[in-house]
């Protein structure tokens, strides 16, 4: 599935580990099946939520091939590329394509704060090395590198650079992108707490985090907004907001894995140096999750 639209809800899924710190493909399968049953539109592997920086090359291969087999063409499987060098990023893109991925989400260079010129050259080198469609992850808050509209103008000379994961935290950037590029660049919101606003303003989709634990509610917000049923979407989104705020936190992986435990589609196991939440912070997060589970809204027919 190489020809697909960058739209809809695309979970940035967590990577499941056993108590012995091996890949837990059984629980991973349970979660992916829950996502598919809820009607998500794609699966994104190996992002921040997927603890990509702690995965080795063989584990990434296993995850891509397992997910491709599991989804069986129902939705695209997108692999995240987050490397320290252009050479390694190109290798990672080639591996993802060979393993059956349908697309790539590409971060700017890790660790080195590249200039605008270097950033564009990095993305273009990756795009030139693969035929897979690419979504650029624009998150200057966390990665200190902003992909500006002028940079996108240059990047769009590559036909396979097609989308942006918009995480600037500036909701008007959705409008700026749409005004500048119309339908040449698909926009997927990358910030859970701005997702409904972004969709209302014309974003094509949502790269979501709390969807890992609450897939039905996440898909419902998207589908209701796209159907123009804003009031119904708002009721779910308002209930969702305390949970969504768990995504904009340095411990987002631990937070969301705790939520997955509460909804029965994950475990709390994280990979060192991460550790499960402790003490007052753990109790605070658990109270938010417990209240959310207790008051889960009824999903209307869409």
Automatic annotation (TrEMBL):
PANTHER family linked: DIHYDRODIPICOLINATE SYNTHASE
Name of the featured protein: Dihydrodipicolinate synthase family protein
Pfam family, one: DHDPS
Lineage start: Bacteria, Pseudomonadati, Bacteroidota, Flavobacteriia, Flavobacteriales
Top-level taxonomic group: Bacteria
Native source species: Flagellimonas spongiicola
Keywords for the protein's UniProt record, in alphabetical order: Lyase
Family stated for the protein in its record: Belongs to the DapA family.
């Amino acid at each position: 599935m190489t020809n697909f639209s960058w739209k809809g809800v695309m979970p940035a899924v967590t990577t499941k580990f056993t108590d012995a710190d091996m890949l837990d493909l059984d629980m991973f399968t349970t979660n992916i099946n829950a996502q598919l049953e809820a009607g998500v539109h794609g699966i994104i592997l190996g992002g921040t939520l997927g603890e990509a920086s702690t995965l080795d090359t063989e584990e990434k291969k296993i995850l891509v091939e397992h997910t491709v087999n599991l989804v069986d063409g129902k939705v695209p499987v997108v692999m995240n590329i987050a490397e320290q060098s252009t050479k390694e990023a190109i290798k990672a893109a080639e591996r993802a394509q060979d393993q059956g991925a349908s697309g790539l989400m590409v971060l700017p260079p890790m660790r080195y704060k590249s200039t605008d010129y270097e950033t564009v050259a990095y993305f273009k080198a990756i795009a030139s090395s693969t035929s897979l469609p690419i979504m650029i992850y624009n998150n200057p808050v966390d990665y200190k590198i902003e992909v500006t509209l002028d940079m996108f103008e240059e990047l769009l000379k590559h036909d396979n650079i097609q989308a942006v994961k918009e995480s600037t935290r500036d909701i008007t950037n959705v409008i700026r992108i749409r005004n500048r590029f119309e339908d040449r660049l698909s926009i997927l919101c990358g910030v859970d707490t701005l997702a409904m606003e972004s969709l209302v303003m014309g974003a094509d989709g949502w790269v979501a985090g709390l969807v890992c634990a609450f897939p039905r509610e996440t898909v419902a917000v998207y589908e209701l907004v796209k159907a123009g049923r804003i009031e119904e979407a708002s009721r779910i989104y308002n209930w969702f907001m305390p949970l969504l705020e768990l995504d904009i936190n340095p411990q987002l992986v631990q937070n969301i894995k705790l939520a997955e435990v509460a909804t029965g589609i994950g475990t709390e196991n994280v990979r060192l140096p991460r550790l499960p939440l402790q003490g007052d912070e753990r109790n605070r997060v658990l109270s938010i999750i417990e209240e959310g589970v207790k008051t889960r809204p009824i999903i209307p027919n869409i």
